[in-house]
Give the backbone structure.
Amino acid sequence: MRKYYRVLLELAKLRFHNLTVFRLDFFGPFLVDGSLFLIQLLVFGAVYKNVEAIGSWESGEMIIYIGTFSLLNAVSMTICFFGLIEIPGKILNGDMDLYLTKPISPLFRLTFEKMNPGSIPLVLMSICIIVYGIRAGRISPGGKNLCAYFFWLAVMVILYYNMEVLIRSMSFYILSNARLDQLEEACLDLCMKLPGIAFYGVFKVIFYILIPYGIMATLPVQSLIGELTWRGALLGISVVSGFSFLTCFVWTRGIRHYNSASS
C-alpha cells in the first residue's frame, strides 16, 4: 500500500509539472470545462423550465440530481478519465507492453497518470448546484441522510469508474471500441437529463441493472431526501458489486491474453 501511495504522489507531481510547462495547457482546461458546464446548465434550465415535477421529484430534487450526476462526471474527469480513455489506443499500438513491464498494476498507473486539475472547477460548480437545489427545494436533510448521501456518492464513483474501465477493457477482445464509446455517451447524456425514477418496466431493467447509469445519481438523491428503500439500497449494492467483479474479471482476463502489437 505504501508503494502505491508513493507512486500516486509521483504521478501527481509529474502530471502537474507537465501541465505547468506551458501555461495554456494548465489554465486552458479551466476555461473550456467551465464554459461547457455553463452551457450544460443552460440546456438543463431550458428543458426543465416548464416541468413542475417528474414522479415525486419537484424542481429542487431535479437540481440536486443534475448536480450529483455532474459531480460524478467531474470527479472522474479530474482523477482518471483522461488516462482510461487511452486504453484502447495503447492496446492497439502495443504501448500496453510498457505498463506490463513495470512493478506496479498497469490499471493503477493508467488510472492516475493523466489526472486533470482543469476539471476541479466542475467539481466545485457541481457542489454549488447541489447546495442550491437543497435550498431551492427547501430540503432539510438530517445528519443521517447526509451521511447516507456521501456513502452512496462514494459507491457510485466506484460504479462510474467500473463502467469506464469495463468499456475500454473490451478493446482486448474487439478491434474497434467506437460503438461502445457511442453507447456510453448516449446513455450518459440520457441519464444525466432524466432521473432513474422516470424509468419503468424494461427501461428500468436496462438502466438500473444492464447499463446502470440510471442509478448513479438517483440513489444518492433518494438517500438525501429519505426516499431510498431497503430494496433500492440492496439493488444498488448488488449492481455495484456485480459490475466490480465483472470489470475485474474482464480486465484480468484481457491482460492475461493480451498479445503485443509488435509480436
In short: The beta strands are 53-54, 57-58. The chain has a mean pLDDT of 84.
